[in-house]
Design goal:
Two copies of one chain form a homodimer. Chain A is built from twelve helices and ten strands. The longest helix of chain A is centred in the last third of the chain and has 19 residues, at 325-343. The first copy, chain A, starts with 6 loop residues before the first helix and ends with a helix. In chain A, a hairpin with an 8-residue loop joins strand 1 and strand 2 (68-69). Chain A is an alpha+beta fold. Chain A is elongated, with a radius of gyration of 27 Å. In chain A, the strands form three sheets. Chain A has a five-stranded antiparallel sheet, sandwiched between helices. In chain A, helix 2 (29-35) packs across helix 3. Chain A binds chain B through residues 101-102, 135-136, 138, 140, 142, 148, 150, 152, 156, 158, 160, 162, 221, 225, 233-237, 240, 246, 248-249, 251-253, 255-256, 258-260, and chain B through 101-102, 135-136, 138, 140, 142, 148, 150, 152, 156, 158, 160, 162, 221, 225, 233-237, 240, 246, 248-249, 251-253, 255-256, 258-260. Chain A binds a DNA duplex through residues 26, 28-30, 40-44, 46-47, 49-50, 60-67.
DNA sequence: TGTTAGCACTCCACCTAAATGAGTGCTAAC
DNA sequence: GTTAGCACTCATTTAGGTGGAGTGCTAACA
């Protein structure tokens, strides 16, 4: 088990995997015998293959077929790739991120570019804060018995809640409440709002203490609502390009994951939470390694991007296990790099946009 | 061409279609001979079938196979069904719409119920106004050089825009601008805001006229942003249950339509705009009749629902041409009926919800 | 004139058998 | 340690054969 691979075995394993990535067909000993410059006969290769199979790196779909990589084999390949990667110059064809007014448009556009460029399916999650801190609260009267609460959290994400009130609040009272709310709550995250704070505020609000409760509820709601994070996808149809994914049952599962988003957001959470473990935020989930069951026949490559002030989101590529990891990783790095450059500091961004105009 | 169907031909045609809906297999003359109570031999049926084929209602997948309905045949069937429908009692198993705080949740839930109940794919568009009228505008200072504009349009849809300002605006000025904006713009739709109005407002704003322009832009943006309407889907995977839709190429097209939403919204627009033509808002698009090319192998059944004050949205079921139109129509009627009852008047709604609690 | 029985014909779907060929494992020789 | 050779396996392809469902047509019948 603990046996290390010999250099020759490594060469053979990598050759097998590379060939399989290309063709999608099981690869035989004769192919490898010719493909590598080891100058070994197919018989020798067969012996080595037999060993590699015993070690769990490759497997046979059936007797007397060639070998295909196992999840462990892919894992070896990907790790090997990553180690190599650092020194390589990124000569990837750049995908241009066009500036757009709305973040949503940018995200959709990125997802589309990714899927078109890679021929795999792509997803991207809207950036979000770990810790949503309140930045600004504003109550405004909208009708006789409705007020609208505008709640801005860090990163200029704006939430609204409509609050029904029984009593009539005049402008002056509203102003007082606004001041009260902002002085007491600014800079706090939802966890940090203690009962004591609420009690204190209610006392200060006097006869209007009921409204305070409603507002707090609204605030909680607004911050929590962020939990089902927005995810945009593109190129789901690409999975039909890979026979190993496009039989009815598998396709059905994958499509469902894409439609319901729930499972995609599991991937995002997983990625964001284990983010520090890997260099440059790139993570590769192969088959069963994936956090979601529906993706067990796929590989998922994710990257974390970070905008201004620690807003983070996740980009993911979903494809067959035999995906072109090399290209995908390069592409993701290129994208995150560009996002970084475009948005890193709000000030910087504006400057950059101006220069381009 | 203009030849009317004889009563017997009608019976046979309907029998063919019904049988095909059930089995999905081409249906032959012998089957019909036994299935109907016409007491005709298969030979006679064959003669009639031959005529029906010539008239374009049915077709043969290949020589010496049974017949399957053509689009024209389905159309005949559906129209026939609709005519019958009115007198029938709706004994449909009710799908319960649970109340929820957020419209979004209700919509998602409806889509899900629909797809699960029918075994077809379902979509639903968020309700939206034809004519978005401004109801309320509120500017609030958020930082040194940012103000947030909260714009409420009819139906309590809230939009936000962050506006960057050069000059510092104090509270008093902001209050004045708020009053100015509300008195001038309330009740207007974006088309109704004339240049004259803007000019007048700018004059009144004096040195702060620049802000007015920005706000108007924001308003325009906010109302316009509604154009790409929100659409929720569910049960895309159901298309894999129908062999005639689940080969790679067709599935790929349909899935794309579902993912990109663009084509679905075309259906919504089509439905909403030709809404008056049909009774009870139910419309059936069979194959090529569909407004979107990707759905040419499907049938699409849509229904319009209407909430409070003329807010309208569309519900759609997408399935194979041989879908159970009867059930689908009933289901859609049931859903729209319930939505109607739940939300028709805001006041009514609240009462109802309270009663249920 | 409309209906029916009968028959020849077509074509798909299914099965079988045989041929193919890529690939393996093993053994014996180098 | 490497290799040539050989027997064996098994998925895939090809070809041929059969059955059955269904049609179109014709001739007979009421």
């Amino acid at each position: 088990m603990g046996m290390e691979l010999s250099s020759r075995q490594e060469t053979i394993l990598l050759a097998i995997i590379k060939t399989y990535l290309d063709t999608g067909e099981p690869v035989g000993s004769r192919t490898i015998s010719k493909y590598t410059d080891l100058n070994l006969s197919s018989a020798t290769i067969r012996n080595e293959m037999s060993d590699l199979e015993e070690m769990g790196y490759i497997m046979q779909p059936h007797t007397s077929a060639g070998r295909i990589p196992s999840d462990k084999g892919y894992r070896f390949y990907v790790d090997h790739l990553m180690a190599d990667k650092e020194k390589e110059v990124d000569e990837m064809k750049e995908i241009l991120i066009e500036k757009a007014d709305k973040m949503e448009q940018v995200l959709k556009q990125i997802a589309k570019s990714l899927s078109v460029n890679t021929n795999y399916a792509a997803m991207i999650s809207a950036p979000r804060y770990h810790q949503n801190k309140l930045k600004f609260i504003q109550l405004s009267r909208m009708g006789d018995d409705q007020i609208v609460a505008v709640i801005v959290v860090e990163g200029n994400i704006i939430k609204n809640e409509i609050i029904e009130v029984q009593e009539h609040l005049d402008d002056e009272t509203l102003l007082k409440l606004n001041i009260l709310l902002n002085t007491n709550l600014n800079g706090l995250s939802i966890e940090e709002i203690s009962l004591a704070t609420i009690k204190k505020m209610k006392e200060q609000a006097g006869i209007h203490s009921e409204v305070i409760s409603d507002v707090i509820d609204a605030v909680a709601e607004a911050i929590k609502a962020d939990e089902d994070l927005e995810i945009y996808t593109s190129g789901a149809k690409n999975i039909f390009k890979y026979p190993e994914l496009s039989d009815n049952e598998k396709a059905s599962e994958i499509i469902t994951a894409f439609e319901e988003k729930k499972q995609l957001s599991d991937i995002v959470y997983e990625t964001l939470s284990s983010q520090e473990e890997y260099n440059s935020g790139i993570q590769v989930y192969i088959g069963e390694e994936s956090p979601v069951q529906n993706m067990r026949d796929c590989s998922v490559v994710t990257a974390t991007y970070e905008l201004d002030e620690g807003m983070r989101g996740t980009i993911g590529i979903i494809g067959p296990k035999r995906m072109d990891y090399d290209k995908v990783v390069k592409t993701l790095k290129s994208i995150t790099g560009q996002l970084d450059a475009l948005y890193k500091k709000d000030g910087k961004r504006k400057k950059k946009l101006k220069n381009e105009e």
